[in-house]
Amino acid sequence: MKFVLASDGSRGDVEPCVAVGRELLRRGHEVRVAVPPNLVGFVESAGLVAVAYGLDTQTLMEARRNLACLSRNPWRIKDLIGLWRESWEFRSRCWREIGTTLTSLADRADLLFTGRVFEDTAANVAEYYDIPLVTLHYLPVRPNGQLLPFLPAPLTRSAMTMKGWLAWRTAKKLEDAQRRELGLPKATGPSPRRITERGSLEIQAYDEVCFPGLAAEWAKWNGQRPFVGTLTMELTTDADDEVASWIATGTPPIYFGFGSMPVESPADTLTMISAACAQIGERALVCAGWSDFSRVPHFEHVKVVGAVNHAAIFPACRTVVHHGGAGTTAAGLRAGVPTLILWWAGDQPYWAAAVKRLKVGTARRFSTSTRESLVADLRRILAPQYVARAREIATRMTKPAESVAATADLVEDFARLRHVG
């Protein structure tokens, strides 16, 4: 069978798609993958055929970061309006380019598989070709009462429904234009609702334990939203052996990572980390991610690297501190160590809330973090009750290889079922 997989966003958004694509390829299927231009090489290194669509992730992340910064300074109205217009232009351009690319790729495909970003565009293409659609979610984004545990369930469901409707109204002109070009009638409701009503498979790429009560709430969908666990390839890095050797020379360190989040002042951030860890007598392992840590002070108890294999390094750390990406959060939970999430935006605050609800760690916004708050947060989560709880939750997490195999099974079966139907 021919499968087309599409994923926009950062490396963390794309890797789950690549993991599934690689498994489908191993099983003998024809696989084509559409990703942002800067991640084509990553996909090809996994042995898959890649096609560029949309814009470079770095461009979009910088625009999002600038918009988030200005949102905290609402009096700068002119700058805020300018950035909103720029963001809209980015979205318009992405929508057109992604729609054109997916329409070409999906011709004669047996199934279209898409990440959450621009799933509405993919849904229109799948409807045009009348082929099954699979959506991949790293968070429970369909209306539910479990995403925000500090709010009453009915209020959370209503807020999520309203947010989805507003998002649809905002992008309606773009969607109407795409559907008109495809010869489809105008949409009369939000794409998430239409995706569900069409009977699409909505894979939940995280563990059920992370959101207690969600499985029972969604039972009415009769398996349409299966939980598979986090999808990752657990790739090794050039720094893994060096980091493992460094860890072996002393006490287990505290991991700090920032992923694709651009740190405004790496030097100030590293100084804060160094001072906090020195105060509590801990070593620090700092992974720079996309940020430039090449010109920062050197501290004897701190090691800075570009990236590491989370699966190999996290279990050797005392605790992990990071931005709250879905994949990094899951890696920390599987490692059985406490978590401190210092979040920026997007899905990260929801994972921060989930970590607090599970009692395996705590969280706060990165921009409000100080040396004093970092010391207090670390001391809190290094307490025995957090350590014990993290170890217990780790036993309830799905192994990545099992998650990938289960997802590939679901995708194959869904494609075959639609063929028979």
How would you describe this structure to a colleague?
The chain is of the alpha/beta class and 421 residues long. It folds into two domains: 2-230 and 399-420, Glycogen Phosphorylase B (Rossmann fold); 240-394, Rossmann fold (3-Layer(aba) Sandwich), CATH 3.40.50. It has 16 helices and twelve strands. It has helices at residues 11-26, 40-45, 57-71, 77-105, 119-129, 153-182, 191-197, 214-217, 240-248, 266-280, 310-313, 326-335, 348-358, 371-381, 384-394, 400-420; strands spanning 2-6, 30-35, 49-52, 111-115, 133-137, 201-204, 254-257, 284-287, 302-305, 319-322, 339-343, 361-365. The strands form two sheets. It has a six-stranded parallel beta sheet with strand order 3-2-1-4-5-6, with helices on both faces. Strands 9-8-7-10-11-12 form a six-stranded parallel beta sheet, sandwiched between helices. Helix 10 packs across helix 14 (371-381). It is globular. The protein starts with a strand and ends with a helix.
Number of helices: 16
Structural class: alpha/beta
Q: Provide the domain count.
A: 2
Beta strand %: 5-15%
CATH topology of the largest domain: Rossmann fold
> Any idea what the radius of gyration is?
22 Å
Global geometry: globular
Largest sheet: 6 strands, parallel
Beta strands, count: 12
CATH architecture of the largest domain: 3-Layer(aba) Sandwich
Q: Could you report the average pLDDT, rounded to the nearest whole number?
A: 91
Helix fraction by DSSP (H/I, runs of at least 4): 40-55%
> Helix and strand string, N-terminal first?
EHEHEHHEHEHHEHHEHEEHEHEHEHHH
Between the first and last Cα atoms, what is the distance in angstroms?
16 Å
CATH superfamily of the largest domain: Glycogen Phosphorylase B
CATH class of the largest domain: Alpha Beta
Strand arrangement within the widest β-sheet reads: 3-2-1-4-5-6
Low-pLDDT stretches are: none
